[in-house]
Amino acid sequence: MTLTIEEAAAKARHVLGVDAEPYPHAELEADLVCGGFAFDGGDRAAIIGYDGGYQTSMTELAGETIDMLVAGWLVEQRHRHGAVAPAPSAAPATPTHPCPICGRPTGHQDRYPRSVCADCFARIADAAGRRIVAFNEGISGGLIVFYADSPTGAQSEIAGDVLESGRCWIDGIECTIGEARFGGVVVQRLTD
Predict the structure, then answer these.
(1) pTM over 0.90
(2) Helix (H) or strand (E) holding 7
(3) What are the strands, taking DSSP E only, across the chain?
(4) Rounded CA gap, 105 and 108, in Å?
(5) What rounded mean pLDDT belongs to the chain?
């Protein structure tokens, strides 16, 4: 984790457009892969992820709390990274399928039988090979795709061609990209 709370607070002020106070959340801050920092801006809130992503909510308008925003973030990020929340030892094993890119086991959902593993998801790019990152715009969904790096700064340029086509590439292999049904982003290999 290289993101400091001060850096996260500056990004929260920017994306919320208001002064925001840190909202300590032990589970969010302890998850070094899927976590980050939460901020309370009165009628709005933000989560700034350790990986650079963020999620915001107009909490009063949406009728939600910061804790609900954090819970949604953790579910989405754990799905995205192929991580699972700690579960009771009696829980059944999660079904897997081989990643269609690299062959590693990845969490299986019947709705997404060709979904890629977290390592391959981290390498998504546009048709020209330019690296992209994808998130839900908010707790209620909405896919947003940025170029990982651009002349105006990291994640400051929307990858419109990817959003329009619903296509991305991993190591030159064409894939689809879209919103997962219950939150998150899903990337699936298009062809064998």
Answers:
(1) no
(2) helix 5-16
(3) 21-23, 36-40, 45-49, 54-57, 96-98, 105-107, 132-138, 141-147, 167-170, 173-179, 185-189
(4) 9
(5) 83
Q: Which two tokens stand for residue 74?
A: 């953790």
Say how far apart CA 55 and CA 45 lie, in whole Å: 8
- At residue 84, the 3 state secondary structure works out as coil
Give the whole-angstrom CA distance, residue 187 versus residue 143: 12
In 34-107, where does DSSP find H-type helix?
Answer: 59-62, 66-80
Give yes or no for a contact between 42 and 61, defined as CB atoms under 8 angstroms apart.
no
Extents of the domains making up the chain: 5-80, 96-189
pLDDT at 172: 94
Q: Cα separations (Å) of 54 from 80, 85, 93?
A: 14, 20, 31
